[in-house]
Amino acid sequence: MKGFLDYVDKDSILHRLNPLIKIFFSICICIAAFISDNYFFLLGLIAVDLIIGLMGKVFDRALSLLKGLVKISIFFFILQILFVRTGNVIFALPLGINITEDGVLLALKIVLRLISATMPLALLVSVTQMSDLSNVMVKSLGIPYKYAFTFTTAIRFIPVFSNEMSGIMEAQTARGVEFDTKNIFKKIGLVLPLCMPLLISSVKKINSGAIAAEVRGFNLRTRNSGYKSYRFAFRDFIGILISAALIAGSILI
Amino acid sequence: MISISDFSFKYDGAEKNVLNNINMTIEDGDFLGIIGHSGAGKSTLTYAINAIIPHYYKGDFYGAINIDGLDTVDTNLTDISKLVGSVCQDIDSQMVSAVVEDEMLYGLENFDIPKEEIEERICSALNEIGISHLRKRNINSLSGGQKQKVAIASIIALKPKILLLDEPTGELDPQSSRQVFLLLKEMSEKHGITVIVVEQKIMLLCEFAKHLAVIDHGKLIVHDKVEKVLESSEILEQSGINCPRTVTLSNALRKQGIENIPVCKTVDEAEKMVKSLIEKEDSLND
Amino acid sequence: MIEFKNVSFSYDSKAKEHTIKDVSFKIEKGEFVSVIGSNGAGKSTVSKLINGLLKPSSGDVIISGTNIKTVPASRLSKEVGFLFQNPDRQICCDTIKKELSFGLKLAGISEEETEARVMEVIRDFGFEPDTNPFLISRGERQRVALASLIALRPEIIILDEPTTGLDYNECTHIMEKVKELNSVGVTVFMVCHDMELVLDYSERILVMSDGKIICDSVPHNAFRNEAAMKSACIIPPQIIELGIRLKNGFESADTTDEMASLIAERRNS
């Protein structure tokens, strides 16, 4: 899933939507996901997410995000069904651990919510340039630039640190640290050889990044510094309507 | 013009001075290479020139540094930054944006460049560096060489008088390194920008720089034209700097008693030198 | 010792073009081999195939008689030491002594043996055992990384761009240490962009271009193979390049002294 948070430069209706509307739309889907109790609605939201991917010409990305989220969800699913033991027992495991109806249903709900709420946020950054998100947060929402910058920088540094982590794991594997073990529990114990180098390099990088930002006028930036301006078009109002409809649907259905 | 007078500096919490009594003047339009062993104080010198010292890194600051009449201690960092564009060692962390276009916009927006000028500046900077086709690309999908070009382009768009680079080719392969230096030479010659580069790759400095400054354990050992510095290769070797082989060759021939051997910084110059030596001998023998 | 038999490799199994295409070579014990080539030619990939960090998509990589297809890289660390470009990705302990002991403990070496080997290496390199590796220069850290590798007594050492971020003296320290090891039979495989360094230390060069080995020869010949140099976008070391351009008998010089002698001879003749 390399670069799953990267901007994809295409010309689609989603790319042309006002960034503010895109943020609003994504948040509405998240809210709808958490309000709704209906399994079919939640599945419908996931379908909506995929349609967004299609409309943004990033369907492949949406699909691979879905696959990735399903994998993570399996972990949460298992965790939930092991801890929620109320209701009728479907399956009895040794050591008194029972898999119950309530457990399965709750786990399913959580997993569906997780997937349907996460996808729009990830797709948002695929069809919107980070700077546009930052600009619109500062100009239209009045969020202080420092916070918007923190948000976009955090996202921008994810692939940098991810690379660093791969490099560290490679270097440590080459000296005998068993990062290539299939044993998950062994892997968890390998924190030190991963964290120390990662911490040190992260601090160095962040320091360099701060200096680089300062010498290019970070402290001078005002609310109106952003070069690009974002107009509203008819399609943006449609976006607002659909968002409202989804929230309504989550409450009513 | 940059003038550094009696500059010494000790970082907060450090035991001793990193730099001692540095005195140098860098003329407008110069291409200066700064070399020296690890820990000599080269990066510290660059921080002093772009005013990161004392505004970001605090410590005991002695002497004065003057950039075009502005004292770096009394002037705030952003005013100095309008004159001095900096490119640093770590290619990844010096970027502030995810997309090339945004990286170009960043400084332009902050420094309040009139909005009508912004597009033109971005286009011309990208063109100059030859990366217009990368405008909408994600920065983390670019190669090291391309990233460095983006960094230089985003600084060039701000039209600084001075371009300061700290080991810009550290992680780059020879071809990309050469391309970066060719760009720097163009900036210096075509636009009159003063270029100051800290570099370990002595061959590139010899080929492209006009002046060399050697820093050794915090002291400025020599600051002169490249050819003059290379003539005394023993000083360089003592300071832990490896001369290009062509320089060693010309110095060796000079030691053998052959007169009028110029310092040969590049293979081109060495070729000319040897050919003229042989032709001279051949014509004498005829 | 190191044998590649028709090895192909691709980072992306769906990609049509392989990064390494049908590469075969054999390196005997005690050789000092450098691999050179332009960016993307596949040099680092080959080096990671040797220590098992990458597994071939097809073909076989045989290290000391064992096909390493199924051997995890962490287990190969005892036979194959890898010095990465960036020592900061390995260093994780707060004293040099602990750092040097780290790899040995992982390899299951006894406490006594670990202590003995660590002290030997510390003496050899001249370290202060209680120094914090994070507070020393990058060059020193690279020496620490090399030392921790040497303590494992590998039979093969891979160097990945050993000059990165180091000044000339630091680089020389590292290379001289490696040369010392090579003289007692350790096989060295170096990926390097610095042609002067390659000429000074290697006894054999593999020139790579576009995933293939296009020349496998001693430095004297490899650098004079104009077609290979052009294909791999390599500029030969200065003295050799000078000799090629001058022709007329100057082509044979590899070092400054040789060239100076040739010039002196010509003048006196």
Description of the structure:
The complex is a heterotrimer of chains A (253), B (286) and C (269). Chain A contains 10 helices and 2 strands. Chain A has 253 residues and is mostly helical. Chain A has 2 domains: 1-128 and 230-253, no CATH class; 143-222, no CATH class. A two-stranded antiparallel ribbon of chain A has the order 1-2. The longest helix of chain A has 30 residues, at 145-174. The model of chain A has no long low-confidence stretch (mean pLDDT 85). With 286 residues, chain B is an alpha/beta fold. Chain B folds into 2 domains: 2-225, P-loop containing nucleotide triphosphate hydrolases (Rossmann fold, 3-Layer(aba) Sandwich); 244-286, no CATH class. Helix content of chain B is 44%, strand content 22%. In chain B, the strands form 2 sheets. In chain B, strands 6-7-8-3-9-10 form a 6-stranded mixed β-sheet, with helices on both faces. In chain B, strands 2-1-4-5 form a 4-stranded antiparallel β-sheet, with helices on one face. The longest helix of chain B is centred in the C-terminal third of the chain and has 19 residues, at 267-285. Chain B is globular and about 70 Å long. In chain C, strand 9 (204-209) and strand 10 form a beta hairpin. Chain C starts with a strand and ends with a helix. A 6-stranded mixed β-sheet of chain C has the order 6-7-8-3-9-10, sandwiched between helices. In chain C, strands 2-1-4-5 form a 4-stranded antiparallel β-sheet, covered by helices on one side. Chain C folds into 3 domains: 1-79 and 154-224, 3-Layer(aba) Sandwich (Rossmann fold), CATH 3.40.50.300; 90-142, no CATH class; 237-269, no CATH class. Chains in contact: A-B, A-C, B-C. Chains B and C meet through helix 7, helix 11 and helix 12 of B and helix 6, helix 10 and helix 11 of C.
How are the SSEs ordered, and which strands pair?
The complex is a heterotrimer of chains A (253), B (286) and C (269).
Chain A: H1 13-16, H2 19-35, H3 39-55, H4 59-83, E1 89-92, E2 98-100, H5 101-127, H6 130-139, H7 145-174, H8 184-188, H9 191-214, H10 234-252
Antiparallel strand pairs in A: 1-2
Helix pairs in contact in A: 2-5, 2-10, 3-4, 3-5, 4-5, 6-7, 7-9
Chain B: E1 2-11, E2 19-26, E3 31-36, H1 42-49, H2 52-55, E4 59-67, E5 70-71, H3 77-83, E6 84-87, H4 100-110, H5 115-129, H6 144-156, E7 162-166, H7 174-191, E8 194-198, H8 202-208, E9 211-216, E10 219-225, H9 226-231, H10 233-238, H11 245-255, H12 267-285
Parallel strand pairs in B: 3-8, 3-9, 6-7, 7-8
Antiparallel strand pairs in B: 1-2, 1-4, 4-5, 9-10
Chain C: E1 2-9, E2 20-27, E3 32-37, H1 43-50, E4 58-63, E5 66-67, H2 73-76, E6 80-83, H3 96-106, H4 111-125, H5 138-150, E7 156-160, H6 168-183, E8 187-191, H7 195-201, E9 204-209, E10 212-217, H8 219-222, H9 226-231, H10 238-246, H11 256-268
